[in-house]
Specification:
- It is a single chain.
- With 121 residues, the chain is mostly helical.
- It is built from 4 helices and no strands.
- The longest helix is centred in the middle third of the chain and has 26 residues, at 55-80.
């Protein structure tokens, strides 16, 4: 496994752990914020600087960056939730966003399908 793939794999594991904690409701708003901060820090320090500039990987990295920013907003909304139903809905949204990020990591880790030449007869 290349160093780049190892970093994406580590990031995917961190995302899975976060999602698992969210799913079991083991985190309060402060813990969510701390965990999100460590995820963002890992992404900024380990993923963003990767030299691999394949357009496919760059596209995923751009989307991951966007999803992390949206995740930050989701956590802020969770912190502001006053009713139990709202908090549950926000946790579901956070979990869904983490799932999306995990899918992006897995897509980068999976080798691209070979391109086939479509010949017209």
């Amino acid at each position: 496994m290349s160093l780049n793939h190892q970093k994406y794999h580590t990031f995917a594991i961190l995302l899975e752990q976060f999602r698992s904690n969210v799913a079991t409701k083991q985190m309060d708003a402060h813990q969510l914020r701390q965990h999100l901060s460590s995820l963002q820090q890992f992404f900024q320090q380990q993923i963003i600087p990767l030299a691999e500039e394949k357009s496919r990987e760059l596209s995923y990295r751009t989307e991951m960056n966007k999803q992390l920013r949206l995740l930050e907003i989701d956590v802020m909304f969770f912190q502001g939730a006053r009713q139990s139903g709202s908090a549950v809905y926000r946790l579901k949204t956070i979990s869904d966003r983490l799932t999306t990020l995990i899918h992006y990591c897995n897509a980068i880790l999976k080798p691209p399908a070979p391109e086939t030449d479509a010949k017209e007869e």
